[in-house]
Inverse folding.
């Protein structure tokens, strides 16, 4: 854990040096944090390290997030899965709390599996999410899927539960819903109004036509151009989380590509303005 905290600090330094203000923290910072046979206090022994990370994040106005794995969900009929999901969400919340970054951070998950009956699974989500403490729920976001829950369906759940929606453009194109994405953007952004931080959008591009759902090493500007144009049309500021195999190199390459568009001005290492 100490080594992971030190490496996280180094990554935050790197981000600041490159003027990157958005970062997804690793869920693996604390080994065995939620293991049923390992219960240990991973906050107190490292309180100074947690605080150091949080101070850096806050002082440099960074927005951070966690993205628990696919087993953290609230649509299962098995109580044990819901219980484990609550434990995992609490683990992530404890880390954010220890860093003191709750106001600038979110914990992002997917709705969950449909198990052959999406209506029944959605109903279970509403029933199971009640078991998540209110303070933790206030930190969560939901993301549309590339196979199961479309943008329309995820948005309806977010609106009902008061949860911000992290729109994944690549997933939307792989799993089209009843409405086109640009028709849904105003309602998606409305779910973020009470957070005080910019709406977050995930961007990536297909590895190939045959492997459309897989992420490529870099982000193809042509693929995301319809999204960029839609955002420009409604004059909406957003945070882009880039999901690409080349990670930071993909981000730096993409912002160079975007900066070459007429009317786009690069204002920092990780930010552009399009007027």
């Amino acid at each position: 854990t100490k080594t992971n905290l030190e490496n996280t600090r180094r990554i935050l330094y790197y981000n600041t040096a490159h003027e990157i203000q958005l970062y997804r923290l690793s869920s693996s910072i604390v080994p065995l944090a939620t293991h049923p046979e390992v219960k240990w206090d991973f906050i107190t022994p490292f309180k100074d390290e947690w605080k150091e990370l949080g101070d850096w994040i806050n002082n440099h106005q960074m927005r951070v997030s966690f993205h628990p794995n696919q087993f953290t969900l609230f649509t299962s009929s098995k109580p044990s899965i819901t219980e484990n999901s609550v434990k995992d969400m609490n683990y992530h919340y404890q880390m954010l709390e220890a860093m003191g970054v709750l106001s600038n951070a979110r914990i992002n998950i997917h709705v969950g599996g449909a198990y052959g009956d999406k209506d029944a699974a959605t109903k279970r989500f509403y029933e199971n999410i009640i078991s998540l403490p209110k303070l933790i729920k206030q930190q969560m976001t939901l993301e549309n899927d590339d196979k199961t829950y479309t943008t329309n369906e995820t948005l309806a759940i977010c609106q009902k539960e008061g949860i911000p929606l992290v729109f994944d453009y690549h997933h939307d194109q792989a799993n089209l819903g009843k409405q086109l994405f640009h028709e849904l953007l105003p309602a998606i952004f409305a779910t973020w109004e009470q957070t005080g931080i910019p709406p977050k959008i995930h961007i990536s591009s297909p590895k190939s036509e045959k492997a459309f759902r897989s992420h490529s090493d870099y982000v193809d500007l042509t693929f995301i151009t319809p999204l960029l144009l839609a955002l420009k049309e409604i004059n909406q500021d957003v945070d882009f989380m880039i999901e690409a195999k080349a990670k930071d190199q993909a981000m730096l390459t993409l912002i160079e590509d975007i900066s070459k568009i007429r009317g786009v001005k690069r204002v920092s290492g990780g930010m552009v303005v399009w007027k």
User: Anything to note?
Assistant: Strands lie at 22-24, 63-66, 105-110, 140-143, 165-168, 200-203, 239-242, 264-268, 271-274.
